[in-house]
Design brief:
Blueprint lengths: L1 E9 L2 H17 L3 E4 L6 E11 L3 H13 L4 E11 L4 E6 L6 H16 L14 E8 L15 E4 L1 E6 L1 E3 L2 E3 L2 E6 L16
Antiparallel strand pairs: 1-3, 1-8, 2-6, 4-5, 4-7, 5-6, 8-11, 9-10
């Protein structure tokens, strides 16, 4: 028994509603594509695993806990639209200044390291590039500078998720199979001066 799995960040319902409105506007006048993403399924992929045997699930669970425990809750804020022209993918990025960008990139490295130490998988070697996929199979190149600016969205993500990718009644769904809370971030207390006795 095997399943198609990936580690990722779940996005709040408010983001999905806003992205639905934005996608409707883009679809109407600006972007030509054969495959729009379902806004109800949008997420940020941290590491795509592919088909994973059930016997490796316990190791993946351990990897998720190990990686997530080393990261504080992450503030993420949406940025600009972009595209991966080679893959014909249209996406919404994150604002590096307004997001915990370094910590987010560190999470990507921690997840990859924790997985590769525990499970033998043929992982994509591409570096983690946080984004929200809005469309695939673009009909032509998109001049993102001419698009209406995306709505600014911000939230704090408190956990890493293990998603499964599957079809139910012919429809693509991404149920969350496990959740891994990020480690508590506690600031080091400053040392109080010791009074002379």
């Amino acid at each position: 028994m095997s399943a198609r799995l990936f580690f990722g960040l779940e996005l709040p319902v408010e983001w999905k509603r806003s992205l639905r409105t934005q996608v409707d506007l883009l679809r109407e006048s600006y972007v030509r594509t054969a495959a729009w993403s379902n806004p109800d399924l949008v997420h940020i992929t941290v590491l795509f695993l592919g088909m994973v045997d059930e016997s490796d699930r316990a190791s993946l669970t351990e990897a998720g806990h190990v990686a997530a425990s080393q990261v504080k809750p992450l503030r993420i804020t949406t940025g600009n639209y972009g595209e991966f022209s080679g893959n014909r993918i249209f996406w919404l990025g994150l604002d590096r200044q307004e997001s915990d960008w370094d910590e987010l990139m560190r999470l990507g490295e921690l997840v990859r390291q924790a997985v590769t130490e525990r499970v033998r998988l043929d992982l994509d070697e591409k570096r983690f590039r946080p984004h929200i996929t809005l469309a695939r199979k673009l009909a032509k190149w998109v001049d993102v500078k001419r698009l209406p600016p995306p709505t600014r969205l911000s939230t704090v993500v408190t956990e890493l998720c293990l998603f499964e990718s599957l079809r139910e009644d012919g429809r693509l769904v991404y149920p969350v199979r496990e959740r891994f809370p990020f480690g508590q971030w506690v600031e080091e207390p400053s040392e109080a001066p010791v009074a002379d006795v």
